[in-house]
Amino acid sequence: FTNSVFGFIRLGVLLAATGRRSIQDALTGILKVPAAWAVAAAAIVLTSGMNVPLALMRSVTLLGDAALPMMILVLGMQLERAGSPDRPRVVAAAVTLSLVVAPLVAD
Description:
Elements (H helix, E strand, L loop, with lengths): L1 H16 L5 H8 L3 H15 L5 H28 L6 H19 L1
């Protein structure tokens, strides 16, 4: 499940970014998504078997609990300033993947 969600995050960012930028810029934009770095850090911790200090885990848990409300806030701010996309078909494909295909794959 985590791999499919992470894959859809990357694909959604790529498709959404290609609406205004080149494919190369969109691919480098994936590296700017914090979820990509979080998955890489989690993989390193899990494969190495190291223990994460309690203070760090508490901080990560606090940030994780705040993530969804902050995403909703930022989404609202972005929608308020949004204009019409240059390539609406690409944006429609990204929205369809996020809202229709991802839930179907999750089941």
